[in-house]
Write a structure and sequence with these properties.
The protein has 373 residues and is of the alpha/beta class. It is 30% helix and 27% strand. The chain has ten helices and 26 strands. The strands form eight sheets. A six-stranded mixed beta sheet has the order 5-2-1-9-22-21, with helices on one face. Strand 25 (343-347) and strand 26 form a beta hairpin. It is globular, with a radius of gyration of 21 Å. The chain starts with a strand and ends with a helix.
Length: 373
């Protein structure tokens, strides 16, 4: 009798945890992981990398190496389509991969890339591997400039990611023997990091004022040029570099595959992590929207919590056993790297800050990565 075929699409946090589970406890199935690039980047340490606190290898998960330890085959190809009727994954080139069970963990991309000039002149934070390469080039280029006129950095996106990138870039660039640095953070909402507790918002505002990071709220970008950002007020903000850290939007894979999606294109998933209408396809992390919990934020902490449940449910599905259900935690520990050796944090509406918070964040991140390296 042929062994079941399990295909993992993407190398995100949850699938890394599935591979770790398979190392400890192999399953009676032929498992393949298909990824568009061999190295996955741990997003939680990216602001620290921008700030110069980590080497690039400390952020990296070698997916083929991890898969090999689990006895899993790796295919290095972007996925073009998931044919849920024929039960096969179609890569951009090469033979389709048949599956009895599939799981998707491909994350998301950033909003607004189709605005005029964004793709040509801004540095988006997704895909993360490309962001790492481009931010290195940006920092090196600014560091080689002579002093004189200020170097004006515009960070677009006032969520937690935008705040961390703005502060980390500010700290890194000001540590170089280059020109004066001016960082501006553009935020479309009424206040920075909207939706977070008031105490954390006030701390972000205070640190921005102290360090000279200008925050412009209620500001939408209309276009980006080689030397400016045009906003909805009609003003043009001079810029030497633009970093794009806007909210999450879905990859086109799901709509291209005819899978059930929400209005933003994210695939609809049940509490068992299975797709709506498809018991043999699972999805985790930012790429999915829960039918029962549609307001769950797009944050890596949820993918990490989903990983062990996904691993158990894949085993249970292959064995014909009942599946566990996942309930998103109502709140979680938020830690924001300020790039200067300090961090901000909040838990249960209580905010805090200091070097000890950065040490806590560093300890949590390194412990997570140690499991896969």
């Amino acid at each position: 009798m042929a062994r079941p075929q399990l295909v993992l699409i993407g190398g995100g946090h949850a699938h890394a945890l599935v591979l770790e589970s398979l190392i400890a406890r192999p399953i009676d199935a032929d498992v393949t992981v298909i990824v568009d690039r061999p190295i996955a980047i741990y997003s939680g340490m990216v602001p620290g990398y921008v700030a110069g606190q980590y080497r690039v290898d400390e952020l990296q998960i070698d997916v083929p190496a991890l898969a090999a330890r689990a006895g899993v085959r790796t295919v290095l190809q972007p996925v073009r389509c998931i044919d849920a009727v024929a039960h096969r994954i179609e890569p951009e080139t090469g033979e389709p991969l048949p599956y009895d069970l599939a799981s998707i963990n491909i994350g998301s991309t950033v909003a607004g890339l189709d605005l005029p000039g964004v793709r040509e002149h801004a540095v988006p934070t997704r895909p993360i591997a490309e962001f790492i390469e481009r931010i290195d080039a940006l920092i090196d280029g600014i560091g080689q400039r002579d002093g004189g006129d200020p170097c004006r950095i515009v960070v677009v996106g006032g969520g937690a990611g935008g705040v961390e990138v703005a502060f980390s870039l500010d700290a890194r660039l000001k540590s170089l023997a280059g020109p004066p640095i001016e960082v501006t953070l553009l935020n479309r909402s009424e206040r920075i990091i909207e939706g977070y507790p008031e105490g954390l918002v006030r701390r972000v505002e205070r640190h921005a004022a102290t360090r000279g990071v200008r925050v412009l709220n209620r500001t939408r970008v209309d276009a980006v040029t080689a030397d400016s950002v045009q906003v909805d007020s009609g003003e043009r903000l001079p810029s030497d570099a633009v970093v794009w850290v806007t909210g999450a939007v879905s990859h086109p894979l799901f709509r291209n595959s005819g899978l059930p999606t929400d209005p933003r294109g994210f695939v609809r998933i049940r509490s068992t992590l299975q797709l709506e209408e498809h018991d043999d396809v699972f999805a985790v992390g930012d790429c999915g929207t829960f039918i029962d919990y549609p307001r769950t934020p797009k944050a890596g902490v949820y993918a990490v919590r989903q990983g062990p449940i996904l691993a158990d449910n894949l085993r249970a599905s292959l064995a014909g056993r009942p599946l566990q259900t996942y309930t998103p935690q109502p709140e979680f520990l938020t830690l924001l790297n300020l790039g200067d050796g300090r961090a901000l944090g909040v838990k249960r509406s209580v905010s805090f800050e200091g070097r000890w918070v950065m040490r806590l964040k560093d300890c949590i991140d390194r412990a997570f990565m140690k499991r896969f390296q």
